[in-house]
Design brief:
The complex is a heterodimer of chains A (671) and B (91).
Chain A: E1 2-10, H1 16-24, E2 28-32, E3 39-47, E4 50-56, H2 68-78, E5 84-90, H3 94-97, H4 99-104, E6 111-116, H5 118-123, H6 130-137, E7 141-143, H7 152-165, H8 172-178, H9 184-193, H10 201-209, H11 213-222, H12 225-233, H13 240-256, H14 271-276, H15 282-324, H16 329-366, H17 368-382, H18 390-396, H19 400-406, H20 413-423, H21 429-443, H22 447-473, E8 483-485, H23 494-527, H24 537-549, H25 556-565, H26 569-581, H27 586-593, H28 602-609, H29 612-623, H30 629-639, H31 642-670
Chain B: H1 2-8, H2 16-22, H3 27-39, E1 43-45, H4 80-83, E2 86-90
Antiparallel strand pairs in B: 1-2
Helix pairs in contact in B: 2-3
Classes of the chains: A alpha/beta (671), B alpha+beta (91).
Bound molecules: guanosine-5'-diphosphate.
């Protein structure tokens, strides 16, 4: 019984494993290539009295020496162990997948070409003229479908033919292309003399031009000294691989010319993409999308906010009940002002977390977010940043920490610092919870307008910040554009989307409950003055600093809330809850409880005590304050510089106060 | 491919479709060029978020109890990697 060895060669996903498994069935052996961690798969089958040994060569892109896989594959083939090499290509994308064949051409081992995925090509309406390809290539060629058991007879037939013919790829057209490369002929002239089995001089020359280390070393060894020094004196292009690669592609195109019915589809863009990728309209379209998204977030948020008013009712009912059973005022206040009031706010905030996450999660699922990052890519360049900085910014809408961590993909330190510094200006998930909530409390139906203004100020803020820090952090170097493959638009996967939205809302809930309750409790105790305001320490400190805080348009209570918001934005809500409804307004509260003014809930207290300009100042102050201490820590972790972390933190604190001051004065002009 | 790289030097990013239009070729041709350039180490995929560094960065971030998922579940939606498309940068 005679034996023959066949080697399967193909790019990943060409269907090599499918073919290998179908051929060998259970007669397989899996091991490792000597000295390498690359998997070695061998098997065998018998047919018509011949035993075939099959070697499944590790999948690789080409025959160059970029990876262990490729070196193993190459060595196996050129060692002459295989009687015939079966080269697989994906017939549904021949332009791309024939690259292996083009790179193989010139290796001195017989082969045949299997165009797999016939069924896929057929579905795409592609037909391939196999006879023409055979004529051009000089080797057996067949259409095939590895998943179709009926196709295997044809495979065996072609295999036997290939073993008989032992033909090589006709490389004359390919070599004509190579000859156009400067230095090709000179190098080949020298290489011809040496004798390295398994390779043709053309192939070796091409690999030498591609700076293939293995080939260069081999040539040095085997060539006579004068020839070796001669080829070394021919200067090599660092991008030699690109030049030879272009030859290979050109050869493939000529090969396919007339052999494949080219349905040359022009590049078509959807209506939406024509706007988003428009040089001029792209930016306004994206900004409008974001604004509409934010406004749209109010829609799912409002019903949840309505639920929160239950707490206000609850507060009165429970408050009454507690007073009537003679509960001490401190405890009544604790239950009503700390616990119930906080929950009322928390539920309101969750409404927005839910709304914002839902709307932006949906934009992301549909594929719009990818367009947003595409449009802002060019803006990044103007800020002195790489295009990939846009991702940390987008992630920062959810969580600044995530943004800081995401900046890790930026290798240049200065750009990384600048990216994080700018990402801080992007309001995070917690900010998106608190700010719309406070805006609705203070401005009612005007809240959406406030949100839009904040968004525009954010863009301005980032621009100014980039100008301030950019000068020292990033050099105006030549930036290379990126290639961004945008996903096709598709319907959102509702299940996954809602799981994400609920997950995030739940996470936010637990975090917010912790922070708000603790902060609220602390400030409630600090400010509790048994009904008399001016005995609490906090009140004394507060009124003492108020002349200064008023410059920024902040009453002392709000200023303390601002300070608390640097720990975490939720903290601000805890402080407000405690300071306005709680101890410091103890008298008003007691009055309310005794029935004189029952309706005096916190919202009304706030409106009575805080003017609109002050409220506006406060909203600006906390929006643009540093995100939270954890983000501060994350920033330090990424940039490893105390100096810069501190610089950014101080910049944000001061910046927030300046913005508050401006907002206050603008507010004074309006109201 | 030289032309493709030359185009990117102006600092503007492009989609494969735009490249195809400017190079007067097909999207498939651009994709195979990208394939080649990626394997030649001339361009590389930008890793998405924390893809490249495990979940160390996730530890501090809420919503990552799920263990060492490739992406930060709490910070970005589950399919974000897919839905955000892919970026390649010139090395
Ligand atoms: N439709 C179709 N799918 C195929 C064909 N051959 C392989 N596949 C599928 O393509 C995928 C990749 O195949 P695989 O053998 O793993 O490719 P490998 O990476 O080259 O080993 C698998 O999901 C196969 O089921 C074929 O002829 N037609």
């Amino acid at each position: 019984m005679s034996t023959a060895t066949i080697a399967l060669l193909g790019q990943p996903n060409s269907g090599k494993s499918t073919l290998f498994n179908a051929l060998t069935g259970l007669k397989q052996h899996v091991g490792n290539w000597p000295g390498k961690t690359v998997e070695k798969k061998e098997g065998s089958f018998a047919r018509n009295g011949v035993t075939y040994d099959v070697a499944d060569l590790p999948g690789s892109y080409s025959m160059s020496a970029n990876s262990d896989e490729e070196v193993i594959t190459r060595d196996f083939i050129t060692s002459g162990k295989a009687d015939v090499v079966c080269i697989l290509a994906d017939s549904s994308q021949l332009e791309r997948s024939l690259f292996m064949l083009a790179d193989y051409a010139g290796i001195d081992a017989p082969c045949f070409l299997v165009l797999n995925m016939e069924d896929v090509a057929k579905d795409q309406g592609k037909t391939v003229d196999v006879a023409l390809l055979e004529k051009k290539l000089g080797i057996p060629v067949m259409m095939f479908s590895a998943t179709d058991t009926k196709a295997y007879d044809q495979f065996y037939f072609t295999l036997e033919r290939a073993l008989k013919e032992k033909s090589h790829i006709n490389v004359s057209e390919l070599e004509k292309e190579y000859e156009k490369i400067i230095g090709y002929n000179e190098i080949k002239e020298q290489i011809k003399g040496g004798n390295i089995s398994g390779y043709t001089p053309m192939w070796l020359t091409v690999k030498y031009l591609e700076n293939d280390k293995v080939v260069s070393a081999k040539l040095k060894e085997s060539l006579p000294a004068d020839a070796a020094s001669k080829i070394e004196s021919i200067g090599l292009d660092a991008n030699g691989a690109i030049a030879t690669g272009e030859c290979k592609f050109k050869w493939i195109d000529e090969l396919l010319e007339g052999a494949v019915n080219k349905t040359k589809t022009g590049v078509k863009l959807g209506k939406l993409d024509r706007i988003y990728t428009h040089r001029f309209w792209g930016k306004p379209a994206v900004v409008l999308t974001v604004i509409l998204g934010l406004l749209g977030s109010f829609i799912p948020a409002l019903p949840i906010m309505a639920v929160a008013s239950i707490f206000d009712v609850l507060k009165n009912v429970i408050g009454d009940a507690l007073v009537s059973v003679g509960c001490p005022a401190f405890v009544t206040g604790l239950v009503c002002d700390v616990v119930i009031q906080s929950f009322s706010y928390i539920v309101k905030m969750l409404g927005f977390v839910f709304g914002v996450t839902l709307v932006f999660g949906m934009l992301e699922e549909v594929g719009v977010m990818a367009r947003i990052s595409y449009v802002f890519d060019n803006t990044m360049g103007k800020l002195g940043l790489q295009g990939k900085s846009v991702m940390p910014f987008l992630v920062s809408f959810g969580c600044t920490m995530g943004g800081a961590a995401g900046a890790r993909v930026i290798d240049n330190w200065g750009q990384k610092v600048l990216t994080i510094a700018l990402a801080w200006a992007v309001p995070c998930g917690a900010a998106w919870a608190i700010i719309p909530m406070l805006s609705t409390v203070f401005f009612g139906a005007g809240a959406p307008l406030i949100i839009v203004v904040l968004l525009l100020v954010m863009i301005l803020h980032m621009w100014i910040t980039a100008k301030i820090f950019g000068r020292t952090l990033v050099k105006t170097e030549d930036r290379c554009g990126m290639i961004m493959e945008l996903p096709p638009y598709h319907k959102p996967k509702w299940g996954a989307l809602f799981r994400y939205v609920f997950g995030r809302t739940k996470d936010t809930f637990f975090r917010v409950v912790k922070v708000v309750l603790i902060v609220c409790l602390i400030f409630y105790i600090l400010s509790y003055g048994s009904g008399v305001n001016d005995t609490s320490i906090l009140y004394k400190v507060g009124t003492a600093i108020e002349p200064v805080t008023k410059i920024f348009g902040l009453p002392w209570q709000l200023f303390i809330a601002f300070v608390a918001s640097s720990v975490g934005k939720e903290g601000a809500v805890g402080v407000i809850s405690a300071l306005y409804a709680g101890g410091s307004y103890g008298e008003g509260f007691m009055a309310a409880m005794s029935g004189a003014a029952r309706a005096a809930n916190l919202n009304e207290l706030l409106l009575a005590n805080v003017s609109r300009p002050e409220a506006l100042a406060f909203i600006f102050a906390i929006t643009f304050n540093l995100p939270c201490v954890v983000a501060l820590a994350a920033t330090y972790q990424e940039i490893h510089s105390v100096k810069w972390t501190a610089k950014i933190a101080i910049y944000y604190t001061v910046g927030a106060l300046i913005l508050a001051c401006l907002a206050y004065h603008v507010g004074l002009m309006i109201w | 491919m030289k032309k493709l790289l030359e185009l990117l030097k102006d600092g503007n990013s492009r989609t494969p479709e735009e490249l195809a239009r400017e190079l007067e070729t097909t999207r498939d041709d651009v994709l195979r060029q990208m394939d080649f350039l990626e394997h030649a180490g001339v361009i590389r995929k930008v890793p998405f978020m924390n893809e490249s560094n495990g979940c160390s960065t996730c530890a501090s971030c809420s919503g990552c109890e799920g263990g060492c998922a490739a992406e930060c579940k709490g910070c970005v939606p589950q399919n974000a990697k897919m839905n955000m498309g892919t970026m390649w940068e010139v090395v």
